[in-house]
Amino acid sequence: MVQTEPDTHAEPWANPGADTRVNAQADTRVSAGPHAAASVAAQTAAPTGARTPTDGAKPSVIVIGGGLIGATITYNLARAGHAVTLIERAQAASAATSKSFAWINAGSTDNPDYVRLRAASLAAYRDLALTLGVDDLLRTGGSLLFDPDPGVLSAKQATLTGLGCACALLDQAQVRALEPHVANLGAPSRPSSQPSSQPSWQPSSQPASASAAEPAALHCPDDAAIDPVALARLLITAATQEGARCLLGCDATLRRDGDRVTGVATAFGVMRADEIVVAAGTAAADLLASVDVRLPMDNRRGLVVHTHPVAPLVERVILAPRVHFRQERDGRFIAGETFSGVREGTSADALDPLAVADDVLAALRHHLPQGLELGLAQIVSGVRPMPVDGYPAVGRARGVDGLYIASMHSGITLAPIIGQLVAGELGGGEPDPLLAPFRPTRFN
Q: Cα 47–48–53 angle (5° rounding)?
């Protein structure tokens, strides 16, 4: 069971004996499920320290991080009968999750192991839609990848088909049948220099392909998009209904005793559990370093723009050479320039976010009907958590008991399957082969 004890290192204003349901900060909230009374009583009991249960009870778990990854892990643990507490230093889904383009896909990589993991998560999304009824949060219909070189599209189709992904080459007529309002299939050019008063996106004079019968786009019908913030909050709500607790607006640091992480230190005191899951996004490396666990990260700054709502025009995720975009159900377009967060030839630190946003908006307009009034509503900038080799890091740290790591880019795509697999392993299940290539022990 999760337990709380006074923290001798707590801030002077903290009341170490306080019930953890009491707001100690203005933005701190605790959600409690139907078993909250028993859970709170257990927290205030004399601590016995973290342990592996021997009486048949499932391990108690603290999950650090309230983004979509932390939310889905908490949800799956609660459904499996674990006593689980989610701790988030701000508000749920307020960091990287809220800054994502939120494209769900299997084929944006050529790594077969990674494709298999991502494809499994697409299937897990379908299961989640049946379980939680998230159809209204999903935008299905797939994605369309455009490239002015038909050879590039054919090569991509061959690669994805070889990896087991559903995809099909479409000519221009087929593209227009699916997306009649997507215009100018070729890439807009980017001049190397221009007057500052001119947009850096200009329409290309080149056609998308030499012949209308040649491939104009690659359609991946299983791809989708999601409202990740709404999904994360829905998962947390569902988890609390299963008995989980959610503590928001609360910093947590890891506590280590010898070869075991035994709990977390908070302003309320030390909270102990049998297992601690670090799903803290860009904060994961620093948290882990505090207990001498190394997780090398290459976090990337990214930017997406949101427009004001317009009439429904686009059903699918559109991946053009210089911009990717999709339309939400409320009419907003969400668009970005690069998934890596770095413009070719320019460091992220040197980018002017306002200029990048203008470029993205100009490129978006290039692919939509002429004369469309498309206003910029907001520029959303954030940092994407990314292990240094670009692949997820999911599993136990080497040489440290009671600690489980879940850190990754593409967390929106991977969230459902990661939640299932992590809950299974923490519940005593066999290590899943899907995660074998992505263990954090590869770094240490």
A: 130
Q: How far apart are CA 324 and CA 316, in angstroms?
A: 11
Within 8 A by CB and 6+ apart from 235, the residues are 68, 71, 72, 74, 75, 132, 419
- Between residues 125 and 444, the one the model is more confident about: 125
Residues 6+ apart with CB under 8 A from 195: none
Query: In the structure, what pLDDT confidence band is assigned to residue 348 with cuts at 50, 70 and 90?
Result: low
3-state secondary structure of 337: coil
pLDDT tens digits, one per residue of 349-369? 667 899 999 999 999 999 999
Most confident of 37-51, 282-296, 326-340: 282-296
Residues 6+ apart with CB under 8 A from 264: 62, 64, 87, 252, 253, 254, 255, 270, 271, 276
Instruction: Calculate the alpha carbon distances from 167 to 271, 317, 430, 435 in Å.
Output: 48, 14, 33, 25
Nearest Cα residue to 391 out of 339, 345, 440, 319: 440
The closest alpha carbon to 368, from 441, 307, 293, belongs to 307
22's tokens: 């009491």
What's the alpha-carbon Rg for the chain, to the nearest Å?
Answer: 23
